[in-house]
Amino acid sequence: MGHSSRVMTIGPPTGDRIASEVEREMEERLYRLRHVVLAPAEYHVYLHPDDYRQIEDIAARIALDVQLCLNSLVERLNRRSRLSEFIARRRAPVEIPAGGWAIYIKPALNNEVGPGELGIHSRLSVPGASRFGGGAGTTRIAQTVVSGTERRTTVRNEPDPTPPGVLQDGVAGSSPGSGRPPQPPSRPSARLTYSDDRGAQTFVLTKELIKIGRGGSAHWVDLTLVTDAKVSREHCRIRRDPSGRFFIQDLSAWGTFLNGEPVPKYADGAAAKATEREITDGATLRLADAVTLEFRVE
Hints:
By secondary structure, the chain is α+β, with helices and mostly antiparallel strands. It has 4 helices and 19 strands. The protein is globular and about 55 Å long.
């Protein structure tokens, strides 16, 4: 939904407001197990492009501050849990994600966040029986728009693409103040370079599964392309397997091409691997006839 008819009633989000809203989002998305409480590890914060330009130069510093705020919030919540032992049944402690907090702050590119508003997309990996030798887990995705004091949230679940025992990487590494030293990458990462309607861009792949497309309120993507509508909302995915190899999956209407060759339409289930194509260093990915991405392994 566009926002052209909205009247701006509040100023651009400040660093303090961004931190406060992410803290609230974390508290509202907690997932309680018997002995521990899980928190979303990944947060994408979207601002109206005009608002984003006002904080662009310090966006990385705001993201770091949000990490510190989340650490402090977890400490406060767990302190309350310890106090509750004396007056009621003990509450399980909130767990800081093993890989730290991943905070992304960026402009909203699809007219879904108005001036003064905040969009917050959070991801929570809910372990399934796979962690104990059974079925797969789930990624719970919450998409919230904050307008003044009003919050509108939609939640959906997706199968967890991460193999059992493999943690997804986050942009933050280990969380500041968590007591965990930064962990060296155990598998190779990769970089995509491309040009869309904003000009030359670079995107570093830091997770096991990267979704690429134009995005939208019903389409979570990691890499948002500002380009022709021939690029689907979710156009393709790049998967990294536990051995460090990369594979492309096509989910588009107009096609994905690897080094000029069409990638088969992706199929779930038993046929999934047959429809993937391996990507190697120096490969070229073309999405429809709109955007070309160069793939480099680091």
